[in-house]
Amino acid sequence: MVPHPAMEIFDPPSPKRQKTEEETTCYDGRPEDFDSDECTDEEMQLFDQELDRIGGGFEIDFKKFRYCFGWRSLDLDDSTMVDEPEINRDFIATLANLALTKYNADRGTSLELGKILIANYHPSCAVTFYISFQVNDPSDGNQTKPFRAVVRYFPGDIEVVSCNPKN
C-alpha cells in the first residue's frame, strides 16, 4: 500500500463530503477562522487534561476545542492518506496489523484484527497515528477485545510505538 503524497507534505484533507456545522474543521490544528492570539493558557491546559483523561491521542473529542494543537481526526472512509480506490481505513488497518503482529510476537498470542474504530493523528517530523480497534482472541472463544496502538509513519519507515489492550 502506497501512502498518498499528502502524507509527506501534510496538506489539509480535501472536503469530499459536506461537514456538519457541529464538526470542528482544523487545518494545521486550527479552525479556519482562528486567531492565534485567542489561544489561552487555560485552553492549552484543557487540551492537555483531555489527553491525560483519555490516555493519549485516542478518541479525542475535537468538538470541545477551538484549537486542536495539530491533532486531527482521520475520516476512515475518505482517501486523504492513500490513493483511490483505497480508503484511509485500509491504510490504518495495515498499521494496526503491523502493531498487532508485534504484540503477538512479543507476547506469544494469536490475536486477530477485528474492526478499526477510530484513528487520530498528529503530524510532526513523522505522522503519529493513535488507533483504536477491536481484536478477536481465538484462545478465548474468539471474544472481541478493545485495543489501542500508536504507530509513527516516517516516509519510507513505519515504527510501532505501542500496542496494548485498552484499559
TrEMBL record:
InterPro entries registered for this protein in UniProt: Cystatin-related_pln, Cystatin_sf
Family matches, as Gene3D superfamilies: 3.10.450.10
Region (Disordered): 1-34
Domain of life: Eukaryota
PANTHER family xrefs: CYSTATIN DOMAIN-CONTAINING PROTEIN (PTHR31228:SF27), CYSTATIN/MONELLIN SUPERFAMILY PROTEIN (PTHR31228)
Name this polypeptide is given: Cystatin domain-containing protein
Organism of derivation: Brassica carinata (Ethiopian mustard)
